[in-house]
Amino acid sequence: DGGITQSPKYLFRKEGQNVTLSCEQNLNHDAMYWYRQDPGQGLRLIYYSQIVNDFQKGDIAEGYSVSREKKESFPLTVTSAQKNPTAFYLCASSIWGETNVLTFGAGSRLTVL
Amino acid sequence: KQEVTQIPAALSVPEGENLVLNCSFTDSAIYNLQWFRQDPGKGLTSLLLIQSSQREQTSGRLNASLDKSSGRSTLYIAASQPGDSATYLCAVPANQAGTALIFGKGTTLSVSS
Question: A63 to chain B nearest CA, in Å?
Answer without folding.
Answer: 20
